[in-house]
């Protein structure tokens, strides 16, 4: 396993990050695996050299963090790991148990530390941008948890480039702990961030860790396979349904994979490996073959012709007029 720097920081991470939204309580999402089912996947990831693990407080209402924390304690040394978690979304119906206020950031960090069973977080990620809290308050609270030694590095997720730049500029001007990573939905079917957010991250030295690199499993053939997630995930049709370029992209992935004699997931992940600025896609593991597909994608080299074929459906779509 070759490890990479996360952005301009000195933090070294594996080129794959194990996303742990899949582990928790099926009452939260029907496709989620219980602890006894999840632990083997976490152990196998560690044995393969993956040192980067991502979860969030909202995943199964904290149960994902608990499962991950117990497994990592049993299977690895804490100092060898890079553990990321996130906060923003409501944890209950109380008005202050959500967002990016100083109050919620401080209590979220403490709660995640307890659930994960650790005394520090390697990467604390703001799960979304909070329109209702001044960026000054959020940035200063994030700096406070870093200076307190409870968080080592900061990350952000899925926001407009101009908002992210405002936060980066405020941090820089006031010499606050900066963001080093961005989690953005990025895959062959979702490439809007190529216009502004990803170029910004490259310019500012922010490491990109794409979430949903397989498009909720569609790019891995989940729909044809009839997986539980494909049949029950409400967001899949909302994000990808009714788009001609999505269907043509899926066909292109299948075509390249068929010609190569490899699973579609390997091709989709290998494409991400060609994108400048991408450090570690966040992949979920819930089937025996998922880990090997992800590992094989690291060494799979796509030709320029294959890349052009995969990108064509999105490149050819009509784009809005620019000012």
From TrEMBL:
GO terms for cellular component: cytosol. It holds the Pfam family Aldo_ket_red. Residues 15-312 form the NADP-dependent oxidoreductase domain. InterPro entries: AKR, AKR_Detox_Biosynth, NAD(P)_OxRdtase_dom_sf, NADP_OxRdtase_dom. The keyword Oxidoreductase applies. Keywords: Oxidoreductase. GO terms for molecular function: oxidoreductase activity. It comes from the Bacteria. PANTHER family: NAD(P)-LINKED OXIDOREDUCTASE SUPERFAMILY PROTEIN, NADH-SPECIFIC METHYLGLYOXAL REDUCTASE-RELATED. This is Aldo/keto reductase. It comes from Pseudomonas chlororaphis.
